[in-house]
Amino acid sequence: MNQSVIAKRSLGGEIHYDAIIIGAGFGGLYMLKKLRDELGLNVRAFDKAGGVGGTWYWNRYPGALSDSESHVYCYSWDKELLQDWTFSQRYVAQPEILRYLNHVVERHDLGKDIQLNTSIESAIYDEEEKRWMLSDDDGRHYSAKYLVTALGLLAATNVPKFKGADQFKGQTYHTANWPADADLKGKRVGVIGTGSTGCQVITAIAPIVQNLTVFQRSPQYTVPVGNGPLAGETVDEIKRSYDEIWKEVRSSRLAFGFQESQIPTMSVSDTERKAIFQRAWDAGGGFRFMFETFNDIAVDEAANGAAQDFVRSKITEIVQDPETARKLSPREFYAKRPLCDSGYYATFNRDNVALVDVKANPIVEMTPAGVRTEDGVEHVLDVLIFATGFDAVDGNYKRMNIRGRGDMAIGEHWQDGPSSYLSVATANFPNMFMILGPNGPFTNLPPTIETEVEWVADLIGYMEDHELACVEATAQAEQKWGDTCAEIANQTLFAKTDSWIFGANIPGKKNSVYFYMGGLGAFSDTLKDVRNADYKGFKFQAMSVRQKRVPHKLA
Ligand code: FAD
Ligand code: NA7
């Protein structure tokens, strides 16, 4: 932006916008498009990253892959792009998703309104001005009537603290902060963590490193991903059917683009059940295995047990060493985010891969040479990879100084666990709209992101049309939505299993409900109902005469 424009906009030292968006991933980019090009607002998006893409900018570790199928892991709103762009595989790897998002930015000329390498440190609501006042890590100040936080659900890294961490002389990398110059070829490498990311990185690097030590705290159920190029006819068929595909996706529970099963697991014979699991195993896909096979794996213990038994039988079949197979076999519910992989269990048949069960034999410290476990063994390493996941959902909110009405910090407002009204708003934080805020749908995420962005854009449009100064969720509406989310989540086995989905992966984090598990279709219906009922659960304030006379809106 040229200096004279900055000077013109800078009234009290800050640069004024109608709306500020934090985050330039799937959510922030679409929000920018909607607010700028459809509502005509003066908008700025910020990201601390050096490029756009969010998740796909940061997670550059070997093997990083979206396990949502590529034709539904994209935007649906640019119909021409759906026809023009062809993903190379059924599931696409990080570089291709990043290329796609960069292409969207270029195509819609979004870049000129995105400020990269800028971390927003604080966002404070000025009740008198009815504006958000923001500061970045360089001491610059901004203000906006609307604040949209698209901070990412899985974006605040979790780096567990180990005694002696600063003594380690080798390299340490977190998968979500992967350096461009990381070189693992021929190195002695350790990986802590066997979640989705751990499974991907372990499988990808095993063939190139000298030796790999996997520090596993919890074994995982994972099924083959079944990746590969899409046949030309399949691509043509998808492109022809996109209207129906999105309609189905948006009204489904999981938004993954497949028919969710209606059959209870125990309604078929043992033989038939195994055949259904086997077909799903052969076809690939973690969410498909859990939700396309039967309709009750996530809610019924016996059904869940059948799925567990099937995966455990595969581990025994694949892994040659019985002790390694035993360690790799989970015993708890199959009720974390369902994983899929490109040969994870078979990786443990390699001579250069060792598995350390750190539940039975915990890491006691990091040493200058590597990692020491309780049995006294020092695992000598050149590189230690943290595939230890994220402080999910509210992590990035707590890392910023966000203050709403009465100077209330968001951490204080969420001291009993994060909450929201419809995932997009929270009481006491007027004109702040969250994309993928707490208690949003647990789904393939781009369709949920689009649903939330479109709804928020409608609400902002409504406010502009009606000359409203601010909107805020009521505490009662928020409480009721939280109760609904808890009621649904508590019917699932996910609630009985420790993972990031319930905040159980971070020591000291409140184990509570972070998602609406009623599905995207039902969520969208609720959003429509709320809008049609004059935004019930929200309260509005009209603009004062002064606010009407001196709008901050600048050409
Ligand atoms: P993000 O892409 O996370 O973007 C948030 C941005 O906000 C980041 O760039 C961050 O730098 C920025 N930011 C945060 N705080 C600040 C601040 N204070 N100042 C400035 N900038 C800030 N989802 C699926 O549906 N299917 C998948 O297969 C899938 N695979 C995944 C694999 C991995 C390895 C990971 C980590 C996530 C995966 N996800 C998947 C989830 C993925 O995060 C979402 O699908 C989607 O990319 C989220 O987009 P977003 O815009 O909401 O957030
Ligand atoms: P996850 O699923 O949270 O996995 C993190 C892994 O790291 C998991 O195996 C953890 O074991 C392990 N972990 C975490 N802290 C420690 C410590 N202190 N010691 C040993 N092991 C530890 O994160 P991912 O990045 O794999 O995936 C998150 C989502 O991002 C994923 O679902 C995709 O949507 C993308 P635990 O299971 O807690 O015992």
Report on the architecture of this protein.
This protein is an alpha/beta fold. It has three domains: 3-155 and 392-549, FAD/NAD(P)-binding domain; 157-221 and 336-389, FAD/NAD(P)-binding domain (3-Layer(bba) Sandwich), CATH 3.50.50; 235-318, no CATH class. 33% of the residues lie in helices and 18% in strands. The protein is built from 18 helices and 22 strands. The strands form six sheets. Strands 1, 2, 3, 4, 5, 6, 17 and 18 form an eight-stranded mixed beta sheet that branches. A hairpin with a 4-residue loop joins strand 4 and strand 5 (131-136). The chain is globular, with a radius of gyration of 24 Å. The protein binds flavin-adenine dinucleotide (FAD) and ligand NA7. Flavin-adenine dinucleotide binds at residues 22-28, 46-49, 54-55, 57, 59, 64, 66-68, 73, 119-120, 150-155, 176, 197, 396, 400, 435-436, 444-445, 449.
Looking at the structure, what is the overall shape?
globular
The first-level CATH class name of the largest domain: Alpha Beta
* SS-based class: alpha/beta
| Strand coverage percent | 15-25%
Total E-strand runs: 22
Whole-number average pLDDT?
A: 95
Based on CA atoms alone, the radius of gyration comes out at: 24 Å
Small ligands present: flavin-adenine dinucleotide, ligand NA7
- Counted up, domains total 3
What name is given to the CATH topology of the largest domain? Answer: FAD/NAD(P)-binding domain
The helix fraction, in percent, is 25-40%
